[in-house]
Amino acid sequence: MTNVGHHLTALAAHPVPVRVGGLYDSAEERVVLKALERAGRRVPGDTTPLSALGFFGCERDLEDELVRALGVDGCLEVIAAQGALRSFERLRRQPAQQGWTVPQVLHRFLGSGSGRKERYARLFTEAIPQGRVPEPLDGVLRWALRDEPPPPLPFETEATSL
């Protein structure tokens, strides 16, 4: 989320209107709100839900949404298919993870290892049965695929008037 403001500002200066949207972790909502306001995509104090602007909040984070949608068994099947179940089990036996639930260990597993979050986000998403796609992911995909022009900016800011 640290770059959302930078990207929104750059896109606000784009000569052709661009449909902008994204996912964010619930703890980062204020960062997204402020970035949208600074980029002229939201009026300060507006109470319009961020989803109406193309931004969809994950309850905790995307990994948590995917684990809930796919289920623990489904996640472990995907990890096993990648040949990484042994690594997961080794992590699960570590003293620091004793007493953790399997979803907690899954979350830790996904966050450890270079590129693991991105790789498993794709793999988990591909494995989720139709009709179980997490609401935020479904929302942002529907937003991105809309067959209509992007909404106009609500007001001009320094970023939009460059």
Explain the layout of strands and helices.
Layout: H1 4-12, E1 22-25, H2 29-38, E2 55-58, H3 62-81, H4 85-93, H5 102-111, H6 116-127, H7 135-144
Parallel strand pairs: 1-2
Summarize the structure.
With 162 residues, this protein is mostly helical. It has seven helices and two strands, in the order αβαβααααα. The two termini are 24 Å apart.
Descriptive account of the structure:
By secondary structure, the chain is mostly helical. It has 7 helices and 2 strands, in the order αβαβααααα. It has a two-stranded parallel ribbon with strand order 1-2. α2 (29-38) links the parallel β1 and β2. The longest helix has 20 residues, at 62-81. Mean pLDDT is 88; it is low at 157-162.
Question: What's the total count of β strands?
Answer: 2
What class do helices, strands and sheet pairing give?
mainly alpha
Radius of gyration, in Å, reads 19 Å
Along the chain, the helix and strand elements come as HEHEHHHHH
Strand numbers in spatial order across the main sheet: 1-2
**Content of β-strand:** under 5%
Average residue-wise pLDDT: 88
Give the proportion of residues in helices.
Answer: 40-55%
Give unreliable regions as ranges.
157-162
Shape: elongated
Termini, distance in Å? 24 Å
Specify the number of helices.
Answer: 7
Q: What oligomeric state do these chains adopt?
A: single chain
| Biggest sheet features | 2 strands, parallel
